[in-house]
Amino acid sequence: xxxxxxxxxxxxxxxxxxxxxxxxxxxxxxxxxxxxxxxxxxxxxxxxxxxxxxxxxxxxxxxxxxxxxxxxxxxxxxxxxxxxxxxxxxxxxxxxxxxxxxxxxxxxxxxxxxxxxxxxxxxxxxxxxxxxxxxxxxxxxxxxxxxxxxxxxxxxxxxxxxxxxxxxxxxxxxxxxxxxxxxxxxxxxxxxxxxxxxxxxxxxxxxxxxxxxxxxxxxxxxxxxxxxxxxxxxxxxxxxxxxxxxxxxxxxxxxxxxxxxxxxxxxxxxxxxxxxxxxxxxxxxxxxxxxxxxxxxxxxxxxxxxxxxxxxxxxxxxxxxxxxxxx
Length: 327
Description:
single chain, eight-stranded mixed sheet, four-stranded antiparallel sheet, 13 helices, 35% helix
């Protein structure tokens, strides 16, 4: 596929939770785009708005949450203007999602095969016998041994790695254009993590599937991503290609994340930490959202919020240091 063809474009997305005690902005002005066949990672600490961004794209924000502004364009469709019936047709068919914990995402009352076949029957309008055959083939395709046996198994009898493979098989059963993976390896041990990431990468290459990867793990980002979106407190603070991000991080938050990540060959290094915690969405600081934790904070950072800017080619940053001519 052409690398220049835009598959997904998110513009100025605002997703708020409107409660009796007030309006709480969870995602606040997020913009990015991804091309066909590309893997884009959204990275940040818990509470940064990563998962709410992905659920907004999927149309799965439940009350009291609501998209209050912005556009989500997928191919030629503006997703946030679709009726629920149109969105249901899109989900699982053209856009699919792998959730963080497969045991809570799979229905314990139905067999694995029943759940995969249901997706295929719903979207491809084929008979159950053909759906069963396709489901078993997809289980085999994601590296599950004895797929016929697993097809008739219930989720609770499978290991965590096996359940995650089942989720990937289900997500890819209709060959979607876009796969959203929300922390797909968090609950797995290191060996199984590597297998799952390798599986996703190979399936993406084979079928040209674009992947939007939600994670807090920079090791996963380095291995999987073409581009990286760094989020903090519901906003994009840095957005560039993966090589530039690791070679020349610009935002103080990105630098803090990288400095707190162990390097494989530096066994005697002293890891740094980012002081403080991510602010809660109902108690955001004024000015730059990161300034209470930032070692470079200036007076301007405390009172005025920076806008995201393209200071370097293909590299967007939200920081007053660069507005003021820093580097």
